[in-house]
Amino acid sequence: MTGMISIARGNYSRRVKLFVILVSALALLSFVRIWSDVFDLTSRGTISAAIGLAVPIGLAGLGGLWSERSGVVNIGLDGMMILGTFGAGWLGWQHGPWMGLLGACLFGAAGALVFGLATITFGVDQIIAGTAMNILGVGFAQFFANLAFSKVPGGGETQSPSIPALPAFSVEQISDPLVAIHDKNIFIVSDLAGILSGFFYRLSILTILAATLFILTSYVLWRTSFGLRLRSVGENPKAADSLGVNVYRYKYIAVTMSGVLAGLGGAFLAIAASGVYREGQVAGRGFIGLATMIFGNWRPGGTAIGAGIFGYIDALQLRDSDGTSLRAMVLLGALILIGLAILAIKKNKYQTVFGLGLAGAVLVSWFLMTTALPKEVALVAPYLATLLVLAFASQRLRPPAADGVPYRKGEDR
Amino acid sequence: MIAVELSGIWKRFPGVIANSNINLIVEQASVHAIVGENGAGKSTLMKILYGMQKPDEGTIKVNGTTTVFSSPSDSIAAGIGMVHQHFMLADNLTVLENVILGSEPKRGLSIDFTKASNRIKEISDSYSLGLNPDDLVSELGVGDRQRVEILKVLYRGARILILDEPTAVLVPHEVDELFEALRGLKSEGITVMFISHKLDEVLAIADEITVIRKGTTVTTLNTKTQKVTAEELATLMVGSELPTPETRGSTVTNRVVLAVKNLRVESGQVKPHVDDVSFDIHAGEILGIAGVEGNGQSELVEALMGTKLSTGTIFLNGVDATNWSTRQKREAGVAYIPEDRSRQGLLLEAPLWENRMLGHQSQSPNSNGFLLTPKAAKADTQRIISEYDVRTPGLDVLASALSGGNQQKFIVGREMSGEPKLLIASHPTRGVDVGAQAAIWDHLRDARARGLAVLLISADLDELIGMSDSIKVLLRGRFVADADPKSVTPQELGNAMTGAKAVV
To answer: pTM of this prediction?
Structure first.
């Protein structure tokens, strides 16, 4: 029993740590909001938009997680997402959004099976096969969109007719009072209220489905024997094989699941976010999803947080007509850097302290010297943030040990 | 009771007969050793017994019943478990996850972690394996990992264990711990089949010993009823006397080849890996470094080769080489036998002749200064293969196709090419059989007589004492004692290595 107790204890201290981090993040955000006087930072609209922008990225990241946990690096996620948007558009405008959803899953899975055939059965380099998948996804969608949509009313060469909407939910009884608290402008309390209000406002059923899928993934991969076998295939396929685990089968299941999730991410873009299939609407979100998965250390919770951060910055950028929100983000970034510098002092890493401190100071002075950020900077902000966060996080990350290594049964190593 | 009976086993591969007419009887609740040279067919035989390969002829009886294994799951079902030489463990999973993988206890849809954890603790306690189910395998040492492998097969109900060269990866005190565990297993009625070529270890643990030579069983000896010596076993194995690592007379000159002063390798923690170490090695001298693995040997060697950051000074033949790159050191005549041949010594996926070029890619016969010269390199590879008796079908085969012992012989041959001035050798005979070991020792002695300076690191204390002109003991990154190889015994050295007692 001591084993279970020690597991529980480990979780306990991790939970405390997570709680401290969350509270300090909230305090920081609140502080920045008050100093920079940008009310929109934690408003219902921003959070609601952030959730909408985070979901497709998160789904792509979750897809990547499935695939990479089984040892297949899937940079073809973006292509599978594109296939998903096409599937959603094609079946969605004819047979309704639910069939569109199914279509997206099927098209994503079909792409994944092709990718799986190349990487798992034939042992093709996974990066090359993934790149091919991305090119294939774009080409396939362009060609068939032209065939399917150019001659129908409301459609065009690059766009489907509109897809009927899926239900979305608002719980005004909770959301509206929270907005009222947000408007009172109280340190931390208002911000917490504002953020929560976003979660009860115009929530697409797809968002709820995505959240469920994250929880299900955690359960299936970490609590069931199926999940243990799948992860063991990504860690040491030879060991798994020696214990009677069918390595190829688990890899195929994982990669197919990856395609289904990427396809769902595409479906969200086509059905929930815009209501049409449009060429180029994926805009590299598959890659961002992959980045959030790496940031999330190949774990569902971390992936969700990563997608949330990206979605949040993207939402601010979209809603930021005058550049003030992103100016506030500069301050937030500066404060985080300075905070990291203070933590590094404790560990006696003075070079790091100096580097972080200097970067923080530069950002603070940038914040003080400007009143608004130019639109060009705003557009790249989410990507810049992803890059920075990954650069800092990469030191503690640990991918599955056999990630990216083709498995050939019976080959001695 | 007879646990396993093999009779008339034949196994042929294209071009080779791996096993010919193998006959073997293993008593229940005994430790049965199978000894033979590298490539004698021990591993093939065990793979047949474990169901990884099918015999061409012959019968296998387990507990009196004739059985045919077509896959490892058949042999697992028959109660046979295999502990592989290269561990089959996922580092990032816990002990529990590694053990239950493939036969997980379930409660509903989930894994029953409580049940699994209790069962693992029960097995670990009853055979005193000392394992905690929640530890990550990556945090365990080599000895612990091996016990995880043993636990894994016991968990599956194995009553017959096959251990493939289990001591090859262990240091002396871990070997003792393993033997303790094996005795415990035996007393619980479990049969152990123990493959090895280390004769003293075999004599220390086995009840019966079967010798295999050139694919066939030569004889079976009983250590209880017969007086068996290592010399006898060696004669049976290779048909020759057991060689001893003797250097026969000093060739030490007063010309210093390597002078190291105040070498220090930081570890990032308070205690550095290598802490202010100074020493000289003269031409014709072999300096042995004794120490339990993990006391700074690897870091010392890597710092000398320039693959790890260090402070202090290194002089090669009187020239300051402190800031030289690894390539410069190589070109100045520093040869290097790394401790892990498959990770640092070879490109497993490259042919032998390309591996011949490694580390000497800028020198003759591999390069004319501008272009590589594969033709000359291939000719030289052929020379190494014949001089060092590397058993290989050819020089175009991948390095991964060679057995561990033959890979090691090839590396030694490569490093001794081109008259090196200094040889840094980490475990030069690890994993090679007695015959090849003797050949490597001969090559080292000849080179030493011609003026080669050698830094020798070895876990084999007999080798260290027999080969070295002087010995230093490394403990927690410092030299804690000097020993005179003429008078020191392995026991005294072993004590000094653990810090129990200093030797003079």
So the answer is: 0.76
